[in-house]
Amino acid sequence: MDPRALALSTAVAVAEDPARVGDFVDVHSMDDGVSDYRFVCLMPGYEGWQWSVTLFHDADRGVWTVDESSLVPTDKAILSPEWTPWKDRLRPSDLSVTDVMGTLADDPRLEPGVRQDGPDVDRDRIEAASVGSTPEVSGHSVEVSDGGSIPGSSATVSADEGDGIVSVPVGTASAADQESDDGMDDHASLTTEDDAEDDLAEAIDRFSLARNRVLSPQGRSQTADRWYHGPHGPKSMSTRIASGNPCSTCGFLVHIQGDLGLQFGVCANMWSPDDGRVVSLDHGCGEHSQIEPPESPHLWVQSKPAYDDIRIDVIDQRPREESAQVEMLEQMEDGDAQEPSTEESASQESLPQESASDDGRE
Questions:
Q1: Between the CA of residue 323 and those of 111, 281, 326, 328, 336, what are the distances in Å?
Q2: 211 three-state secondary structure
């Protein structure tokens, strides 16, 4: 028995049409008498694929048997993307209001909260959750309301000092403070332990760090990156038509606490499409508080009335439309006015008789 002919007949039987099986390509010998025969696949939509028929050769008996047959892709085949688990390919827009995803116990976006009465209080975490650090936003620079910038993971705020502008990194000492360090002790050494505890308690209470779980640095960075590149960031269409009026200078911007407040705020303009949403400080919507409303168009100008006493308007008079009872009463009144009175009729009747009697006597 010819193994190649057996493999070809098997491929035609699987394809259910001889026109779907092309020329012989190659045979791959494997261990233990197993060989793989390949044929070109001519099925529509399967360009670059091959028919694979695996045969087993029993050398003692001299018999070839079919193990399996299938379609296998080559380097030129068009393949679908690699399978991704549903929890990784799911997007927030795929969920409805009744769907609940839940949060894993080891979610990297969260970390345990801070307890002031605990044995080990991580002060670095408290400082990182406050305004002293800025989440990274893919290397972009964000202009803040007071003229500073936020270049990715570091923030600076500009302030007037004398005749010039000095840029002071947030959470660090200014140049003047660094120069004064030579003549004075460190500020932390002058702070009493009670004051430090009070500051710690104030930071925990202000930023609600006593919750069971709070945002981790990774969670804050992911949130900032998602908000900044979303529809309420600087690259939106509304920002392009905002005429250089960013949200950082708008009176309707509500600032938020924490390090995210260095880059974002909440819009409170009821006429803005971003009302109630988190917007970046360099975002714009066109409803800035400094924009004056447009002037109302003068479609109608009221003027004094004009009287035309030269032209005469001829108006056609039409018969009035009244009820039949009114017409009947008017006709009856007209008939009574035309009939003579009783005395006049009697005198008129007596005149001819008297004249007749006079004619008879004569």
A1: 92, 77, 6, 9, 21
A2: coil
pLDDT tens digits along 80-137: 888 888 878 888 888 888 888 888 889 999 999 887 665 555 666 666 655 555 666 7
Report DSSP state, residue 18: G
Per-residue pLDDT reduced to its tens digit, 7-20: 999 999 999 999 99
**Residue 140 structure tokens:** 């972009």
- The whole-angstrom separation of Cα 221 and Cα 215 is 10
Query: Lowest-confidence range among 63-67, 121-125, 241-245?
Result: 121-125
Contact 168, 174 (CB under 8 A): yes
Give the per-residue pLDDT at 273.
92
Residue 140: CB atoms within 10 A of its CB come to 19
Q: Which helix (H) or strand (E) holds 111?
A: strand 110-112
pLDDT at 336: 67
Question: Alpha-carbon Rg of the chain, whole angstroms?
Answer: 50
Other beta carbons within 10 angstroms of residue 32's beta carbon come to 6
Whether pTM > 0.85 for this model: the answer is no
For the chain, domains (ranges, CATH) are: 3-73 (3.10.450), 110-219 (no CATH), 226-280 (no CATH)
* Alpha-carbon gap, residue 3 to 38, rounded angstroms: 12
DSSP 134-200: ----TT-EEE-TTS-EEETT--EEEEEETTEEEEEETTS--HHHHHHTTTS--HHHHS-HHHHHHHH
Looking at the DSSP assignment, which residues form a beta bridge with residue 232? none
